Amino acid sequence: MQKVKSAGIPKKTVTGTSSDTAQSLSDLGATVKYAQPAGQTQTYKEAEFANVSVEGYAVRLCLGGDATTALGRLFEPGDGFQLQGKEEVATATIISAVAGDHGTLQITTEF
Known about the structure:
Shape: elongated
Strand content: over 45%
Number of domains: 1
Oligomer: single chain
Number of strands: 10
Helix content: under 10%
Structural class: mainly beta
Distance between the termini: 25 Å
Order of helices and strands: EEEEEEEEHEE
Radius of gyration: 14 Å
């Protein structure tokens, strides 16, 4: 059995599909920032953690820049990864490892 580590308050798990262009977690449908009311002013909360699992086809992950089919950590179907900290969650980009073979991603962000 695989243990999932929780770092905060989770948002709904979403399913995203990689493509032939680099996408952020937000582009893939995950909540990475949301508004929370605070009296008269609007404040925003940013995700501090993300659990991502890969299904179907391989993807590449890059932090701080755009992933390409040749640049980024390779994750095969059945692999998963965790992003920790606002900066990693905000700057992560994902792309299909092979053009035309789009992986399915299960993404849960936590605040």
